[in-house]
Records
---
Amino acid sequence: MSLGGPGQQLELVGLELVKVIVPLRHPWKSAAGTLSERESLLVRTVLRDHDGAPGGAEENEGWGECAALPWPTYNSEYTDGALAVARQYIVPALLAHAVASARSVAPALDWLKGHNMLKSAFQMALLDAELRFSGQSLASYLASCSSSGHRRASTVRAGVVVGLTSSVGELLGQVENFVAEGYGRVKLKISPGRELEAVAEVRNRWPQLVVMVDANGAYAAGGPASAAEQLAQLEEYDVACVEQPLAADDFLGHAQLAQRVRVPICLDESLTSPAAVTLALSVGACSVVNIKAGRLGGYLEAVRAHDICAATGAATWCGGMVETGLGRAANVALAALPNFSLPGDISASSRFFEQDIAGPVELGADGTVTVPTGPGLGVEILSRAMERFATVRLWQSRS
Ligand code: MG
C-alpha cells in the first residue's frame, strides 16, 4: 500500500543516482579517515499519481542519501562501491518490479546481502516522494509507525561530535566554540592511552555538558579485560556512555566489559539490524543504543530498533555520518521519536558545510533543532549548490 492516501495508486517513473562532492568547512578526522569533503551517493526517485490529482497525472520527486563514507573504513560500504551496486543491481531490480513504495524496498531487495546504507537511501527517497503526495512530514509518519503511539517532539536537542585533534588544547578550543553556539552534548573520539586527559579537561571545564566517548572498536586488540582496565578510568568523569569499545561482532566481549565498568556501554557498528539490537540488549552487551538508520537498513528499521529499546528501557540516541542536509533532515525527524533520551549527532548544517545541498538545518538559540513539518523530508534541494557539487548523474526511467 502506498503512503499517498486512500485509493492513491502511485507509479514509479524512474530513479536517478547522484554522486556529490560537497566541501567541508574544516577537515574532519576520525578513525575512519580524514574527510575534507563529503563524497555522498544520493538517490532521486520520481513517482506519478494517475488518479489523485484532478485534471491529470501529478508527479513528486523524493531524495535519499547513502550514509557510506568514501572508503570502506566504518563498515564495508563506500561511495563508489555503493554506486556500482546501485547501478548494476538495485536500480534494475526496483525498475523491473515497479517498486513505488518505501515499504516494498526491503522485500524487493531481500536477495541482495548487506549494503544496508545503500538500501536505506532508496527507502528514504521513496518515503520522501510518497509523503509529498499526502502532505505528511517524515517525522509524523515515523511516529505513526512506532509503538510509541504517534508521539513526537517538535524540537530535538543538538549534539556534536568532535573529530580527532592533534592536541588537547585544540580539542578544548573546538568544544568551547560548540558550547558557545549552544550545543549541549559533545562526543569525543578516544583510543587506548588517549582517553583520559581530554575527557577530564572537558568535564572539569563544563560540568553540565553531556559528554560521550566513541572508541570505534579501538580497544578490540587487548580484549575485554584490558579494555575494562583502561575504560574504568573514565568512571569519575560522569561520561554518558562509551561507544563501541570492542569489535563489531564481539557481543559477548561487550557483555563481559559491561560487567566490569560502570560507564554505560553503547553499541554502534555492531548493530546492523533490529535483530542485532535485540541480541545486544538480551546478552547485556550494551545499555545504550546508537540508532543509525543507514546502518540498520532504513528509517523503518530504525523505528523498530527505537521501539525495541523503548520496550526494554534502553537509552537511545540518533547517530550521524556527516550527512548533507538530506540525511540530516531525516535524522532530525527520526530523533523526534519519544525514546531518544540522549542528544544525538544532530548538528546544524553549518557544523560541517559552508554551502549545503539541501536545507539548511539550523541550531536554535536554545540548543535545539526544529523538526521539519513540511511534506516528506521537509527540506528542499538547493539547486545551484546541487549543480555545483554533483559529479555523476545517472537517470533511468521505467519505460
Ligand atoms: Mg560511533
---
Amino acid sequence: MTLSIAVLISGTGSNLRAIHSAIEAGNCDASIAAVISDRRKAAGLEFAAQHGIPTRVVAMRDFADRTAWNGGLTEVVDQLSPDLVVLAGFMRIVDGQFVDRFEGRIINVHPALLPAFPGHNGPEQAIAARVRLSGCSVHLVDRGVDTGPVLAQAAVRVFEHDTSESLHKRIQKAEHRLLPKVIDDIARGAITLGEKPVLRHEPEEDDEIFYSVPMAP
Ligand code: GRF
C-alpha cells in the first residue's frame, strides 16, 4: 500500500530530499502529502515547493504558547490524514496531545545509536564519549525525548580526527539510506507498527541496516 506521509522539518531537509529521491526512483512506496515546518525559512520548504509538494508553516510565534502551537500542529497534520508522520530533522519536541493523536504512527530519525546519546547534539555527544562506532536510529515517537522503540539503525565509524560536524555528515549519509528504507518497509508490511512493532522479513546477511524490532513469531 502506498503510504501517505506527512514530513515535518525545521531546516535543510536533506532527509526529505532522500525520501523524495527514493520515491522517484521507485524504492520507497510512499507519497508525501505535505511538508510541514515550524520555521518559515527552512530550506526544505523551498525544495518541497519546487517539487510540487504542498507545504505548511506552523511557527511558534504565531501562537500564544507552546500548548496552543502544539494544538495547531496537531490540527494541520490531522487535516492531511496521513498514514505515517515522519519527523525528519524537526527540531521541536511534540507534546502529549500530538503523540496521542498519531500514536504508533510517528517516526523520528536521530543521529546516534539510541539509547546512547539522545536529545540534542548526538554527534557531539559521541565525540565527547570517544566511541568508535556511532550511527543513526529510526524510532517510534512516544512521550519521551528519543525514548520510543527503535525500529532500525545504521552504523558508521568514528575516527580519531573527527569533529562533530564531520561525524554528523557521515551519519547523515547513513540516514539518507535508512529513513526511506524504513518507510518502504512499513509501506510493504515488512515492519508493522502499533504498540509492539514487529519485523516480518528475515534481514539479508550483508544488510547494512540493523533491525531492532523482534521477528514475528
Ligand atoms: C538529521 O541529522 C536528523 O538526524 C536530526 O536533524 C538532522 C536534520 O537534517 N534530527 P536534515 O534537515 O534532514 O538535513
---
Amino acid sequence: MSPARHLVLVGMMGAGKTTVGRQVAARLQRPFFDSDEAIEARTGRTVAQIFATDGEPAFRALETEVLAEMLDDPEPAVIAAAGGVVLDAGNRERLRAPSVQVVWLRADPAELARRVAGSTHRPLIDHDPEATLVRLAAERDPLYREVAAMVVDVGGVAVSEVVEQVLCGVGVRS
Ligand code: S3P
C-alpha cells in the first residue's frame, strides 16, 4: 500500500481506532480525523444525544456526510471511522476507492466487551455488551473484510505494537 493516500481505520467499538489513529497520524505527520468527533463538532451534540433525539438513521446520515467530506479532502489524512460506517453500501464503495487504504482493527467480541465495559457514550452498548457485540460482529465482519486491504488483530496486543503493524502495512518502516 502507498502512504500517499487517506488511511482509514475501521472496526468495531472498542477496537482502538481513535487511539491508534492519533498515534499513526502523528508518526505520518498527517492530520487526524475521527468521524464521531466530527459529527459532535458539527452538531454541538454528543453521539448518544443524536441517537436519543433523532434516532439511528439520522445519525447514520450524518456519518455518511462527514465520511464523504473527509475522503474528498485532497490532503492525505488518517481517519478513524466509527464502527457503523460499513453498514452503508455507498460508504463501502467510497472506502474501496483507489485513493483510500483501509485497515481493519479486529478483536473478538469478548475482548471488545471488556474494553467498552462501563462506557456510557455508546448508545448501542446495553446491559449485555458481549451479546450485542457478537450480534454486530456477525453482521459487520464481512463488511469490514470487504473494504479492508489489511487486517490487524488487536486482541491482547499493546497499542504501540498495533501502531507499528499499521505503519508497516502502509509502507512506512518503524
Ligand atoms: C457505533 C460506533 C461508535 C458510535 C456509535 C455507533 C457503531 O463509534 O459511532 O456509538 O454502530 O458501531 P466507535 O466505533 O468509534 O466507538
